[in-house]
Amino acid sequence: MLKSIIILVTIIIFPAFVIAQCTAYLPPEGTTLTYANYNKKGKQASTTTTRVTKVETKGDELFYHVHQLISTGKKKDDMESDLVFKCIGNEFIIDMQSVMNPEQMEAYKDGTITVTSNKMAIPGDLEPGMDLEDGELKMVVHMEPMTINISARAFYRKVEAKEEITVPAGTFTAYKIKGYMETKFAFMRFAYKSVDWYVPDLGIVRSESYDNKDKLLGYTELIKIEK
């Protein structure tokens, strides 16, 4: 469960390239962000390294290619993934596949996968009190002799405040966004609340996850920025 939360967090998240006034929530090409991921007891469970490997323009869209590595200190347990985020108009679009747990998806690598999704966007003109659109991803995995349905949904997303926050990587002015996440794998369902602090032209600097009783499940903090 913690790994699923970490993936959601590290969606992740980050000077801005502006096309049609789009504010990016990823850093420039070549920048590496390092996060520490903690469990509910405050013990560090893993480290996430997020590197923007390429930024390219296609028409009026700006694409960010990102490589992520989640490490627990044991190489055999490392999880790597490549994601694509983009700026369109006044919106920064988050790749919904980034919320899926790569360890679980590895089990389906030999299957045939069909993906449908709608965008999960962050507007460039965030304001406290603003409601944000839902994001949803559906995957159908066909592996003989069975078919598995997988889904992820982000909903009830709202900008709660604009405030100053201090993390190991520094002090930033951030937008505090609260929302809910639900993932389903076959007959299993996981749901939790997330509270994220987004910094324009950088990304998430802190994220917290809670269960349905508002008990802390874990949190993530930005600890290093390398250019």
Name of the CATH architecture: Beta Barrel
Question: In DSSP terms, counting alpha (H) and pi (I) runs of 4 or more, how many helices?
Answer: 2
- Gyration radius, rounded: 17 Å
Secondary-structure-derived class: mainly beta
Number of domains: 1
| Spatial separation of the terminal alpha carbons | 32 Å
Highest CATH level, the class: Mainly Beta
Beta fraction: over 45%
Unreliable stretches (pLDDT < 50, length at least 5) are: 1-20
Average the pLDDT over all residues and give the rounded result: 83
Oligomeric assembly: single chain
Helix content: under 10%
Which fold name corresponds to the CATH topology?
YmcC-like fold
* Biggest beta-sheet profile: 14 strands, antiparallel
Give helix and strand order, one letter per element, not per position.
HEEEEEHEEEEEEEEE
- Global morphology: globular
Concise account of the structure shown:
This protein is mainly beta and 227 residues long. The protein has helices at 2-9, 102-106, and strands spanning 32-39, 44-58, 61-71, 79-88, 91-94, 112-118, 120-123, 131-132, 135-143, 146-167, 170-185, 188-199, 203-210, 216-226.
